[in-house]
Structures are given as C-alpha cells and as structure tokens.
Amino acid sequence: MAFDKDAFLTTLDSMTVLELNDLVKAIEEKFGVSAAAMAAPAAGGAAAGGAAAEEKTEFNVVLTDAGANKVAVIKAVREITGLGLKEAKDLVDGAPKNVKEAAPKADAEAAVKKLVEAGAKAELK
Questions:
Q1: pLDDT, tens digit, for every residue of 84-118?
Q2: pTM higher than 0.85 for the full model?
Q3: Is 21 exposed, middle or buried (0-12, 13-18, 19+ CB in 10 A)?
Q4: 91 to 15, 59, 102, 118: CA distances (angstroms)
Q5: For 21-78, how does the pLDDT look when each residue is reduced to its tens digit (9 = 90+)?
Q6: CB 76 within 8 Å of CB 118
Q7: First-last CA distance in the chain
Q8: Angle at CA 125, nearest 5°, toward 72 and 58?
Q9: Phi, psi (5° rounding) for residue 17?
C-alpha cells in the first residue's frame, strides 16, 4: 500500500488542536522521539531544548460564534468570567472574542466545554 501524502495532510488539516496534540504525543511515544528537540534548531537554536522544549501551559478560550441560544451562552460567559450581564452580552455579541486569557489547560478546556454545551462555538488557542 502506497502512502497518500495528500490524504494525510487533508486529515491533519481537519483535526482540532487537541487531536493534533494527542497525535504528536502518540508519535513521540511510538518512535521514542521528541517534537521539541527538532523545533529548537529550527528556531535558530537559541533555546537549545530550554524554553522550546516546554509544553504550552496557558491557553486562551476564544468564543468564535454565539450560536442560536445566545441567552445560555451569555449565562455561560458570566459563569466563566464573572462579568456583569451587559459586559457578557457585549462579549457574546462581539464574537469572535477571547473569553478567558492565559488560563491553565484544565480551566480552559472546562470553559470551552461549558460554552459548547450552551450552544456556542469555542476553541483553545
């Protein structure tokens, strides 16, 4: 069976950030390699395994679309951010907007889950 590079790239293009992260970890475990070790020389070798080898720990939660149920999304935004009603409504109406910035991975994933359950479209960056 021949390797279909175009199909592989199309599949990668359709994956979420979390799915890509899981794929990279699986490749690292399977082949005993580290993606960070290869990234350091590409970055000019300045960090040489230092900062480039560290995993990202802070994420931004981005509301990309409020969806049809804006009231539930506004409630979710208020719960996540602690904003008042007007501020939360303005944030939802102005999508795409950052809902939460520099949040730990677990908190950011929980916030995205709340927004999606409320009917919005959200992502981690």
A1: 888 888 888 887 888 888 888 888 888 888 888 88
A2: no
A3: middle
A4: 27, 18, 17, 15
A5: 888 888 888 888 876 655 445 555 454 445 544 667 788 888 888 888 888 888 888 8
A6: yes
A7: 36
A8: 100
A9: -60, -40
Report which residue type is found at 4: D
Nearest to residue 65, comparing CAs of 119, 14, 20, 109? Answer: 119
Over residues 60-71, the pLDDT tens digits come to 888 888 888 888
CB 93 within 8 A of CB 66: yes
Residue 3 has pLDDT above 60, yes or no: yes
Q: Coil, strand or helix: which one is 82?
A: coil
In 1-125, where does DSSP find H-type helix?
5-13, 17-31, 35-42, 70-81, 85-93, 105-117
Q: How many CB atoms sit inside 10 A of residue 68's CB?
A: 9
